[in-house]
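To fix ideas, we quote verbatim a fold written out as tokens:
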Amino acid sequence: MNHSMLAKDLDKDHPLQGLLNKAAAFVPENLYKKDEIYWFEKHYKLDQSSFFGSLSPSLKNDVLLDLNHKSLSLAHYIEKFGLNYGAKMILNADTTEAKSLYALFSGDEVKHRLWIDQFIQRPVGLDIDFHPLLPALALCLEKGNYTATVFSIQVILEGFGLYHYFQLKETCQNLALKEVFGQILKDETLHHGMGVAMMKSFTLDEETKEQITELTALFVKSLLEADWVLKSLRQIGGDLTSSQVKQFKDEIDYEKQLQLRVEKIKSLIQKVGHQGLFEELERRKIFKK
């Protein structure tokens, strides 16, 4: 499947870009200064790291620029993913109202990507492996049935995304980008609420329960394996010994961060009321690293 995360981006002067901007009532404008930093070390908890503190000002700046780029690239890809998700759900929904809601959903994702792209300072590229969540999303889109996909994407992913985007908004230093995340949060709250409401009305057959279990396990695993802060630090600041890695993780409360992610996902699963599903996930030790 040529899912939208791998669709190429046309040049800025391509005629379709102008048509897209006009259709979305969007005026393209780069709202950043060259090498502007949107999120400083505190956002990534690097202010607690002695290794990061030992780096030169130039290397610190390079690490933050790299992490900022990855933060926006992840948002860019998630919004691109939303295009094909919406298309799949329009085709599979069995009521006019559900199809219409997913058409509006897709339009929101288009606007979100256009807004975010104003602040990306270098090419995003086509490598989606820089964050383990993105390949997991691609697999979910390809393999999940209608109900399992609603649960995986709108309940878990978008519910967790609200938490993630809120953190990005709260610590963002660029006021225009901060406003963008504020608007995205409003839209995603509706998308998530729609998914929760739909899941409460669904009856889950055994095949769907199994799909949800497998996809949830995949998402939890991807969120527990995401260690791009450490990767950026190693690539730019220099490699760390095993003892330095341990010290780094201790200093930034890495295990606590992972536990908070797990607890957030647990609370999202319990929102939809399928207690048997939650118990099965617990039985399979899905939430254990």
Notes: The chain has a mean pLDDT of 89. The radius of gyration is 20 Å.
